[in-house]
Amino acid sequence: EEWQANIRVKRSPRSKGIAVRTFEQYESISRIHIVPALGNIKARDLTRPRVDRWLRDLEGSTYLRDNGTTVAYSANTLRLCRVVLGMALQWAISEGIVSRNVARESKPPGGRPRPEKHALSEEQARRLIQATRGSELGPLWALMITTGLRRGEALGLRWKDYDGESITVTSQIKLEAGEVVRGDLKTDKSKRRLRLPEFVIRDLEAHRERQLKQVAQRGKPQTDLMFTTSDGGYIRPDNLRKRFIAACHLAGIEPHEDGRPWGIHELRHTAASQLLNDRIPMQIVSRTLGHSSIYVTLDVYSHLTDQDSELIANSMNDRYDELVQK
C-alpha cells in the first residue's frame, strides 16, 4: 500500500522540508526497525496493542547498525521509531486510509537508561590545553572546553566571526551524503555571541599569525576559516575524532574505565559542568550552549544540579538553625 511506501520515507527531504541528515535518520529508522516488523500489515489493520507490543519487543532487544555494530535500543531510538511510524500514519489519515493514529495513541517506550554524561576534570582539561598549546588544533580544543561549542560550530568558524574579544556563532558545518556542507543553525537561540577568556584570545591571535606565515612561506591557500586542512579546506567532522584521541594521549588523559576513548562532544559537557559547578545561572548556561530552551539544559544536565538541593537544604538549616536544634 501507499502508506508502506511512506513508512519507507521515499520522498525527497527537500519536498518534506527537513534537513538531509534528519531525512537520512528517518529513512534508517524505517528501514531497520519499522518495515521489517510492520511493513506487511495493512494500515487499517494496525492496532494500538500491536504497536505497543512491537515497541515492547524492541525495548528488550538489540539491533545491527549500518556500521556493523550491535547495540541495545536506547530510549531515543525507541522514541524515534514511534515518531516516524506516527508520521507515516498521519499521512495515511490525510489520504483517508485510516481514521486514527494508533502510533501516537500508543504507550511511549522506555528503553535503556540514557548513558551518563562524562566531562573532563579540571585537571584533565588543564593538561589538554597545556599539552596542545601552540599546536595546529590547540586553540580549537581550548575554545571548545571554554565555550561548549558543538563540533560543527567550531569547525565552521571564520575569522570574520571573531572580533578580538568574542565569537559570533551563526552557522555550522556537517556531513551530507559524505560531503561537508555549511548551513545556518536551526534556531535563533542557537545563534549566539560568546565572550572569550583572555588566554583563548591570545591563542587565537597566535594561531592566526601562524596561518598567515604558512600562506606566505609555503603557499598555503588563503582562507577565512579559523581551522583548516593543509590545503585550506574544511576539516571533516568525522576526521577530527582521531586527532582528538591523539591530543588526549599527548596530554596523558587515560580512556574511560570501559576502554572507550574520550569523545569530542565530551568537551561540550566539560564546559557545561564547569559553568554549573561555578554556580552560573542555568539560563546563562543554556544560552551559552545554544540550547533551544532552558528545559533542554535541565534535562541533559540535571545530574549536575542535584547537589543544588542539598545546598538549599543546608542554607535553610543555617537560616533557621535555632529551630533545627529543637
Q: Order of strands across the biggest sheet?
A: 1-2
Radius of gyration: 24 Å
**Average pLDDT rating:** 84
Number of helices: 15
- N to C succession of SSEs: HHHHEEHHHHHEEEEHHHHHH
How many structural domains?
A: 2
- Helix amount: 40-55%
Output the CATH class name of the largest domain: Mainly Alpha
The structure class reads mainly alpha
Which shape, going by the Cα principal axes? Answer: elongated
**CATH level-4 homologous superfamily of the largest domain:** Intergrase catalytic core
Low-confidence stretches: none
Percent of residues in beta strands? Answer: 5-15%
In total, the number of strands is 6
Distance between the termini: 74 Å
Overall CATH architecture of the largest domain: Orthogonal Bundle
For the report, how would you describe the main beta sheet?
2 strands, antiparallel
CATH topology of the largest domain: hpI Integrase, Chain A
Please describe what this structure looks like.
- This protein has 15 helices and six strands.
- The protein is mainly alpha-helical and 326 residues long.
- The chain has two domains: 104 residues, DNA polymerase, domain 1 (Orthogonal Bundle), CATH 1.10.150.130; 189 residues, Intergrase catalytic core (hpI Integrase, Chain A), CATH 1.10.443.
- Strand 4 and strand 5 form a beta hairpin.
- The longest helix is centred in the last third of the chain and has 26 residues.
- It is elongated and about 70 Å long.
- The chain starts with a helix and ends with a helix.
